[in-house]
Amino acid sequence: MSVTPRETAPEYPPLGAATYSLTLLFFAYVLSFVDRQILALLVGPIRDQFGITDFQYSLVQGAAFALLYTFAGLPLGRMADRHSRKWVIAVSVCFWSLATCACGMARSFTQLFIARMAVGAGEAGLSPPAYSIITDSFEPRHFGYAMAFYKVAVQVGGGLALVIGGFLIEYFTHLGPIHVPIIGVVQPWQATLISVGLPGLLLTLLLFTITEPRRKGVAVLEDGSSQLPVSTVARFLWRRKRVYLSLFLGSSMLAMAGYGSAAWYPEFLVRNYGMSKAQAGTSFGSILLSAGIIGVMVGPWIADRLAARGHSDAYVRAIMYASLLAIIPAVAAPLMGSAELTLIVLWPGVMLGAVYLGVMAASFQPITPNQMRGQTTAMYIFVTNILGMAVGTSVLAAFTDFLYQDDASLHLSIATANALFYPAAVALFAYCLAAYRTSMAEAGQWQL
Description:
17 helices
């Protein structure tokens, strides 16, 4: 059965309206990363209150979030392909914001685990429809940079979680336990979580003001139908498994390195170099903000330069080159022996390691029919987060607890993880190149 693109005029929304939508989506993504990354600063107080180990804490930090985040993304991605995308986003933001507040009200390890799962379920409804809206809102010459700007939120949110989170935990620690009517006694770490959860409720209202763009690149079946059954989507992706699996698994390796470092670097700076939580959060968060933002935005620039030289696989090639260069600083930084040298070497590692974020988000949009983009994005999120967030954070903790068997060996765990994950990513992207060129050549003339 063949599928051909529906003939439509581009009809992109005005650049101002598209930028307004992009800005709100950016802030939603920032909040999502603040809410998910804030736990990196709360290891000590939560461990003390519930009497848990690093590995148990990593399950709350990673697996609890990632399990629901990945599985809920699949039906939410299909919903975004068939219904109002802004409604999916707005309801999701409201849900995860309430769930973050619920984390701050947890009275046991089990309650925290369940609330963290709810945060993951809510955040699963953001990126699949957001990717689709951005793709349909910006002309091709603006698309790569628009997608990269959206993905900059990963670094901004992760950085702000540490900078603002460091300030909040210090502030609430100074205040001590707070008695709140109905809720009861709120510990400093709980007040921190509630504080970062509340802003999402206001953003929910603003997200309803987004104007949805007309869907473009819509594939139409021979009978004229544009509604593609799940079996058609699955068959399309499976026949192109070399390109999609290589992209998704390669980005998963980078996510394992990135999430693992983001989850444990602040604690490493505290344990090994004696920094306060505020100092560790500010130091690592500042690097995520500066180096991370530059890395994400440099990605499409590199891809544009490669495309100008005739590389139709420019997106993937850009990620492969950056990942290769990132290996040395990513492995060396935690082994430098002093906080100053670690932070200096870490900066280029974070910058190069962030290149894939904006470029990867853009890479599979043009090779995928419109009605599959939400579902394909959900599958991408499924793979990268099951491995990246659930496994990445726990692998580092497992190295510390079971391989090195010393809480002071976090630096060795971080270096070991990066030495494994970055080379694996480079190999997968190299394997993807030929298949990606084939997919780019067939874009718009898809065969199912």
